[in-house]
Amino acid sequence: MVRSACVFCGSSPGRAPEYLEAARTLGRLLAEREIRLVYGGARVGVMGALADAALAAGGDVVGVMPQLLWDREVGHDALGAMHVVETMHQRKAKMAELSDAFIALPGGIGTLEELFEVWTWGQLGIHDKPYGLLDVNGYWQPMLAFLGHAVTEGFIRPAYVDALVVEQEPGAMLDRLWRQ
Asked: CA dist 100 to 1, 21, 23, 82, Å?
């Protein structure tokens, strides 16, 4: 059985060089461990670095991109497969369908929205796939502090936050996702 990891991440490179480096390391490790990369399909930013590294290491890379973004010419044209869908909703559903686990690298609103949707689906029992944050350069620490506050205030159960795998290193993330 082929394992697949969906990686949510930014179409921008971010300010810190560590973001692109972590994406490259994760892409390479996915290829080396023969884990298919499923991602948003862009050739730019953290997304592009992730895909390029996986491809350079001989990995299987699948992109999923709405037609609107494909028409803007941000799609990666060297992938093993590219699914062009009509809407962002279809994009998320297709990425979830194709994946066994989910990882969020640093990114913006889209990355947050994708992460929170699959996390909510896990909470509701729609899937039982693991999900986690690759906390590069402390990027996710403010959000983790907020989640702790939401637990304290009674809006999130501790078990739901505990289900979120948080690691700083790509190799440790992959180890934990497939150990569960």
From this structure: 11, 24, 19, 18
Q: What are the structure tokens assigned to 179, written together?
A: 């150990």
Residues forming beta bridges with residue 166, ordered by sequence position? 133
**What are the helix (H) ranges across the chain?**
17-32, 45-56, 67-71, 88-97, 109-124, 141-152, 158-162, 170-179
Q: Distance (Å, rounded) from C-alpha 122 to C-alpha 131?
A: 9
Average pLDDT by consecutive 10-residue portion of the chain (180 residues)?
A: 90 96 98 97 95 97 93 85 94 96 97 96 94 97 98 97 96 89
- Give CA–CA dist 67/134, Å, rounded: 28
Question: CB under 8 Å to 142, separation ≥6 — which residues?
Answer: none
Give how many domains the chain has, as a whole number: 1
Alpha helices by DSSP H, 38-129: 45-56, 67-71, 88-97, 109-124
Write out the H or E segment, with its range, that includes residue 38.
strand 35-39
User: What would the pLDDT profile of 50-67 be if each residue is shown by its tens digit?
Assistant: 999 999 999 999 999 999
Domain of 168: which CATH number? Answer: 3.40.50.450
The pTM (predicted TM-score) of the whole model is 0.95
Residue 1, pLDDT score: 54
For residue 174, give its domain range.
3-179
